[in-house]
Amino acid sequence: MKTEPRSLSRSYLAELRKHLKAGTGTSVTSARKLGMKAVALGLETLHIAKIHEEALILLASAQDSSRVRREVIRRAGIFFAEAITPIEETHRGARESNIKLKQMIETLTLRTNELEVSNEELRLEINHRKAVEDDLRISEGTSSQLLSRSLQMQEEMRNLSRRLLSCQEEERKRISRELHDVIGQTLTGINVRLNSLKSQSTASSTELHREIGITQKLVEKSLEIVHRFARDLRPAAIDDLGSIPALHSYFKTFMKETGIHVGFTAFAGVEALDTSKLTVFYRVAQESLNNILRHAKASRADVSISSLPAHVCMEIKDDGRGFKMNGHERAAKDERLGLLGMRERLEMVGGTFQVISSPGQGTTVHVEVPKAGSTLRESPSTRTKAPIPDRA
Predict the structure, then answer these.
(1) Of 47, 103, 274, 282, whose CA is between 20 and 30 Å from 65?
(2) Which CATH class is domain 237-385?
């Protein structure tokens, strides 16, 4: 045992001896002081009990009478009980503190868990808001692009409308001029010839036949001009003979007038398409060849119509100078009307339109229309090479 507990043991023996000698009713204040000292030394109840036992053995063994020994033990028990009171109070306070501490720990743990839940909810909310902010930024960017594209398309539509009106007016001027200058003059010539024939009824048969022949040629020329106008407005061959003969006739005339060679291949089942789609093919080919004539400086163009699983495809390729693509397949300003017109025609029948070109590499116009509503079937034997015929 260390020095301080030994000193406490001696003090306990001395104070207990004093207490026993003093008799019944003696104050036990000294016992409480010893207990407080034991608390200060960090001793437990068991330590005091051992000190008390040692002191009691010494004091009780000195008594001769058993009755006196019992009285000594009883009064020593009172002293011991008072001595351990500070230790028990300290333990009780510690227990209460422990209970309070445990309650605080439980409360703190609960609050910590609640805080973790709140932090997790806050983290999820922050992530959600970040995601919403990202979506908003993307949406704003997309909306801005869509608005820009919409404004661009509106401007293109305004330009297209203005150019359509301008082209319509120019076409009307041309037709009016042709009717006035060519057909009008021809009909006037016919009228003059007929009046001449009327006044020359007495002329020789040879002279009369010659004048009639000249008049017939004028009539034939007028009919040819009228037919040409009709073909430009709507080729009758499309309705009467079908798209392939109409295209053959157009390509033959185009080669004769321009010197640009046109190769043409098509699969036999193309005529199964409905009239609106065949007309679109005709107009796309017509506009593409007109663009080749005006801009491409090409010597050859190849037109092909082929069957795909769900679509019919037409391609027009030339060996011309090509052009630099700009944005959504926009060529030079004077070519935009034709390209937009072709795209509009394809969209009307549910088709697609694409232009592929680069400087020095020629140009390819690729269009597709759906087979919906048709019974197109293609086998190796149905695909034929259709050369340009010698006559329409």
Answers:
(1) 47
(2) alpha beta
